[in-house]
Amino acid sequence: MAHSPAALPPGALEQGCPIRVEHDRRRRQFSVRLNGCHDRAVLLYEYVGKRIVDLQHTEVPDAYRGRGIAKHLAKAALDFVVEEDLKAHVTCWYIQKYVKENPLPQYLERLQP
């Protein structure tokens, strides 16, 4: 009898399950696994210069919206920009909003118009 991986019950993220962001450098994306591994929230980026990334798109499945998952993705991506000493162009409207709500100097000084 095969065992299936334990899936998170609906709402598990709200019940204190930690949200873990994974960074796939090869695919240039940050992701959070939801509901076991059936669903994922993602943030996509591209290198548009040697030291410049474009934070392009954040996507959270409808059933998981409003739980702060995109915030974790945005923070992870911006922290990556800071840690790698990159510049960032922000195409994604959500990340633009996140920076406005969290105007940390280390983020602001790395943003490109």
Automatic annotation (TrEMBL):
Pfam family, one: Acetyltransf_CG
Domain of life: Eukaryota
N-acetyltransferase domain boundaries: 22-112
Similarity-based family: Belongs to the NATD1 family.
Protein name: Protein NATD1
